[in-house]
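Input:
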Amino acid sequence: MNMIQTRNLTKSYGGFTAVSNLNLHVPKGSVYGFVGPNGAGKSTTMKMFLGLTRPSSGAFVIDKMSYPHNRVKILREIGSFIEAPAFYGNLTGEENLDIIRRILKLPKSTVDDALELVDLTPYRKRLARKYSLGMKQRLGLAGALLGRPPILILDEPTNGLDPVGIHEIRMLIRSLPDKFDCTVFVSSHLLSEIELMADHIGVLNHGHLLFEGTLEELKEKASFEGYPDENLENMFLALIEEDNMRRGGVK
Amino acid sequence: MSFRLECKKIRRTGLAAAFLAGSVIAAALPVINTAARPDTFSSMTGSPAAILSDANLQMISMLNLLLITAGACILYHIEYADNGLQKIQSLPVRESGLFIGKCGILLPFVLMMILFETASLCFCGWRWLDAGKEELIEMLQTLGFTLLLTLPATVTALVIASACRNMWTALGIGVLCVFMATMLSTDNFIASLFPYALPFQILPGMETERVIHYCIAAVCETAAACAAEIIHLKVRRLFA
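Output:
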């Protein structure tokens, strides 16, 4: 069963098409890695799922609920973290999470739980604007994890973290489906990053989905089409480069 | 719910302190003005409410409007500064609820401000103009009228602040509106309907029919500003 499914999802801004006829299938209980170079349309797709951007055409279904009729119901199911961390700088980390908790009508203990999950408990009373970039990133993640939602949409969640932080967050994301029975849709521009946490992959370039499937299927495709398959990063680069050449040499 | 959330969000913004300080300054104005030249005021003809309103209400209204504009800017600045609004937009709440919550925060502050000013005018009337119970009631009516006429400017200031990501743009537009209002003729009924010009109208001496017209206009303009915000939110989502 697919937790997220899109049908010809398209987003255009004037003459520029950011996402073109996207048909995604995100299986329930999986960690789905959404990979693509900068500007490929990953964030736009995620914003459409959250109702932050209106699709130009096409449709999507999340947990059997269609957008836009069930926008509020869909958002109740999703924990999200999009682009840069979003917070209230004049509030402490704990107060920021408390705002989200109140909106989601969750018990008070969920704030402590989320702070603990992302290792922010010692800094809970510090103003969010005084957090380091990594701490802001963790606060954003804590906001997404609050109440352990069945779907998590995370846009480049390891940005700004140090190697230890990246490892911790990676491990956390990897463990989420088993721990909390949730589906994770996570984006990155690095395939090497995604391969360590995802079991399904979607490769996006210039708004077009180039590949969707498991890592093994990607390796098979690479080997079948003659791409370098010994290294995932090279495979990814070859896939993107060929697509760029097909589009008239656009890099 | 929205109101309680907004109360939490304004922590450490200085909004309450700004309104408190503004209210004290605005309330001190008539006291200083009357205490400095009591004979001038006591020799004037007319009711104490009319004398004190004529002498002070223009300046008080201008201070009120500037404070309302700054308050509205602070309320939306916290949403835009660190992208808090985007987080709220990705949660299961309606954005119009956010606006209603902000109105719910700003209006009590405006009420507090006007209460301080009423108390100050009543004190001046009692202390220097021998105002009795009836005159004090007239002053309360005057300030009730001012409160109603301040509503459109309050809601409009929030609409402007909500539309501008950059706080300085919203503040600039607001200040321009305040100064434009001071330049408009208060005798011209149509010109005086400008939301920022309405609080400059003074109740004592005004014809009953005109009072009713202003009250209706204030209610209609407040409703229109709320409708404008809802349309703005829908359009913003449509073009996002």
